[in-house]
Design brief:
single chain; six-stranded parallel beta sheet; Rossmann fold; seven-stranded parallel beta sheet; 17 helices; alpha/beta
């Protein structure tokens, strides 16, 4: 049976993790005549990275009408400080348009319940159900403490199913929403796409490095993230013969990895052993990362590109998703994730990498052995969707 899917709640493709989730979702659910509609936050950006080649693109928002709904939302904002009621208004007509046109709506923003602003997504979920459209919270991570909020618990029950992308979230959510399964992040299913490589990748001795403004903003000790990355690069460039590839994975103007990476690039004189990677599509970035010997990354989907390419990886994490994914891959996050909030000394990251470096062959061998069966677990998400639609 050919299905009609609406993908909503995701960011635009300048965050290549958002792009990877969309591409991976289509890979998981692929059938020749399925129809995929992506309700986009930024149409031109999604088009520029090729999402229009795999799905129909439509703006998630329509023009805001100053009608009775507007007046009610305005009153709630002023009297109850409920800003989400106003924020969601431009999305409601587009959601109602999908009635009778879609079989299932997938909330594909995997991080949406990791941060503030969950009220907005609760409103979206309710709007789909008010339109008679079933919903699935797809490939998500949720901090267990968030599930304690009665409003979140009610929202999770409203979804027809939840697909948790790691075990920490699964254990927290299944107590609230019995129709919860665990399946790897959809991005694990996204194939790489070949692109031109810097000639220095041919050595097989390139260490990929990713840093983000996000982890800098989550540090507990001011300046410690940058100090640790500087010490790591100093070690790699002065104490090893490795080449360093500085690889961005988010290029949104307000949250651009390239700003931090350029700063690192300018700090060191060994430019012959440093590659400053430019922006690419998510499949091309996976191809680049897959040619690294090791990867040290802050962005979750950059590290997923590394894991799924069987590259030994050290994650500089800040939330449940990093811990949960590493725990599911290795049995423990210890030695594989270094929380940015725990960086206390300038050499913490360098020491963690040295420990990883000493176990290179064992880690790569483990990933090569288990990754095919791990990725195959995404089939459970497709089966879950099939059951919901048949019901």
């Amino acid at each position: 049976m050919n299905m009609r899917y609406t993908l909503f709640g995701n960011g635009s493709s300048g965050n290549h993790g958002c792009e990877a989730i969309t591409r991976g979702t289509v890979e998981i659910l692929v059938r020749e005549n399925n129809h995929y509609l992506v309700l986009s936050q930024q149409l031109e950006q999604d088009r520029s990275y090729g999402i229009g080649e795999i799905a129909e693109l439509l703006s998630a928002k329509t023009e805001l009408r100053r009608d009775a709904r507007f007046l009610l939302a305005y009153a709630r904002m002023k009297l109850q400080k409920d800003y989400a009621a106003m924020d969601v208004l431009p999305y409601l007509d587009r959601i109602r348009e999908q009635k009778g046109k879609t079989d299932l709506a997938l909330a594909v923003g995997g991080d949406n319940y990791c941060y503030d602003g969950t009220d907005f997504y609760r409103y979206l979920n309710k709007a789909y159900h008010d339109a008679g459209i079933p919903t699935v919270l797809w490939g998500c991570s949720i901090e267990p403490t968030v599930v304690d909020d009665p409003r979140i618990r009610e929202d999770l029950r409203r979804y027809d199913a939840v697909v948790a992308r790691e075990s920490i979230t699964y254990e927290a959510v299944r107590e609230v929403q019995p129709n919860t399964i665990m399946a790897p992040d959809p991005a694990f299913r996204m194939p790489a796409a070949a692109c031109k490589l810097d000639a220095r990748f041919a050595s097989g001795n390139v260490i990929g490095v990713n840093i983000s403004p996000m982890i800098v903003s989550n540090e507990k000790k001011q300046g410690m993230t940058r100090a640790n990355y500087e010490e790591l690069l100093r070690f790699l460039l002065e104490e090893t013969d490795c080449t360093v590839a500085l690889i961005p994975h988010v290029v949104w103007p307000q949250n651009d990895d390239r700003a931090e990476l350029r700063r690192l690039y300018e700090l060191f004189p060994q430019k012959d052993r440093m590659i400053l990677v430019e922006d690419h599509t998510a499949p091309e970035l996976k191809y680049l990362i897959g040619h690294c010997r090791f990867f040290i990354g802050a962005r979750t989907h950059a590290t997923i590109a590394a894991y799924s390419s069987c590259v030994p990886t050290l994650v500089v994490g800040y939330s449940v998703k990093a811990r949960g994914i590493a725990r599911d891959l290795f049995g423990s996050e210890e030695g594989y994730v270094i929380p940015v909030q725990g960086l206390a000394y300038g050499e913490d990251l360098r020491k963690a990498f040295q420990t990883l470096f000493a176990r290179e062959d064992k880690i790569r061998g483990h990933l090569q052995t288990m990754m095919p069966s791990y990725i195959a677990q995404t089939d459970a998400a497709r089966e879950m969707v099939g059951r919901i639609v048949k019901e």
